[in-house]
Design goal:
357 residues; alpha+beta; six-stranded antiparallel sheet; three-stranded antiparallel sheet; globular
């Protein structure tokens, strides 16, 4: 008679223990996401110690950043600043170029124009720019959609940087070849024509001002580059961490943003809509048609997506860690200043992992 009673008693105690642990977990609220005010320089911070970071590894990270010609570096967790470092005379008020990391701003602005009904990314580019905007046969030009520009699959010759009609020549049918090139700039023209507004005016109203960014566009003869402070770069990273939402406002449609950070085609699965994606089985890099095996940045979290620009301008977004990492500066390798998925990203993440893991 005692055995069943003993068994039930043990079971009751076990269930009670499980219930208590569950209650304890429920009583600990998840960390809240923080957004800095748009009209203030105040930004909440959180100590590395409170997050369980390895403080002994922070100096090694800083030394690496200095060795690699870094100007500024930030880590946000749940929107709060955990690290903010400036080097070589750079300050929180200094503007710096995003280079190709700014492509992600163009993708976001295009997405906003679509959600406001001005354009559809599945429409031909010619619907907004008119026919003969390229130097391609008309039947080939008509294959190019706005989505092809977002995904770098226009089929246009990528060997020439200057985006003028005579350089926009046919190489392959749209959607059949991935090639990284400056023709993405035509998205600026598409958005401007579709909205009947100056692109920068539309960008400022619909994106920049809504998240409290500073900065400006430089529409150069060859390159279109955004310049801002490091904190403004981090603000955009925080918007990306929250799938296009800023505080209580969904600035960029969540479904479109998730398209931006998902494989946009199967030729280079590590590329979305002007965003680079980690954790895929293969990747390609600019100026090459080679396919490389493995993840883009093996040392980085697999769910990371990134805005990447020449001279190693970076916004890394890691949803699993509620983290944004920003790096601005000169090229980490002066002998190889152009954009490439290089050893810098992997070496940097080795240092970051030593701090955060």
């Amino acid at each position: 008679m005692m055995k069943p009673f003993l068994y039930l008693s043990i079971l009751f105690l076990a269930l009670s223990s499980c219930s208590k642990n569950t209650d304890d977990e429920q009583l600990t609220p998840p960390p809240t996401m923080y957004f800095p005010a748009n009209n203030s320089t105040t930004w909440q911070t959180q100590s590395a110690a409170s997050l369980g970071f390895n403080q002994n590894a922070i100096q090694s990270l800083k030394d690496f950043l200095v060795q690699k010609n870094t100007k500024s570096f930030m880590i946000l967790v749940n929107g709060r600043i955990v690290m903010e470092e400036y080097f070589d005379g750079h300050t929180s008020a200094t503007t710096w170029e995003w280079n190709s990391a700014g492509k992600t701003l163009v993708a976001a602005t295009t997405g906003i124009a679509q959600q406001e009904g001005f354009l559809q990314i599945n429409n031909p580019v010619a619907a907004y720019l008119g026919t003969s905007w390229t130097n391609m046969p008309l039947e080939k030009e008509n294959l190019i959609t706005v989505k092809n520009l977002l995904s770098m699959t226009s089929g246009i010759d990528d060997s020439k940087q200057l985006v003028i009609k005579s350089n926009l020549n046919y190489v392959a049918d749209a959607g059949t070849r991935w090639a990284y090139g400056n023709v993405f700039q035509r998205l600026i023209n598409v958005t401007s024509e579709a909205t009947n507004q100056n692109f920068e005016t539309y960008f400022n109203t619909k994106l920049k001002d809504k998240i409290g960014m500073d900065g400006f566009w430089n529409f150069g003869a060859i390159f279109t580059i955004y310049h801002s402070t490091t904190r403004s770069m981090a603000r955009f990273g925080l918007l990306a961490l929250n799938n296009g939402k800023w505080n209580a406002e969904q600035i960029l449609n969540e479904s479109f943003f998730k398209e931006c950070v998902s494989s946009s085609q199967n030729i280079n699965p590590s590329y979305g809509y002007l965003w680079w994606l980690n954790g895929k089985t293969t990747f390609m890099v600019p100026s090459e048609q080679s396919v490389f095996q493995g993840a883009l940045v093996p040392n980085a979290p697999q769910d990371m997506y990134a805005a990447m620009g020449a001279n190693d301008q970076r916004i890394y977004v890691i949803p699993s860690k509620k983290m944004v990492v920003v790096r601005m500066g000169n090229a980490s390798n002066i002998a190889n200043p152009n954009f490439a998925v290089s050893g810098f990203d992997d070496a940097l993440w080795e240092k970051i992992n030593a701090v955060i893991d």
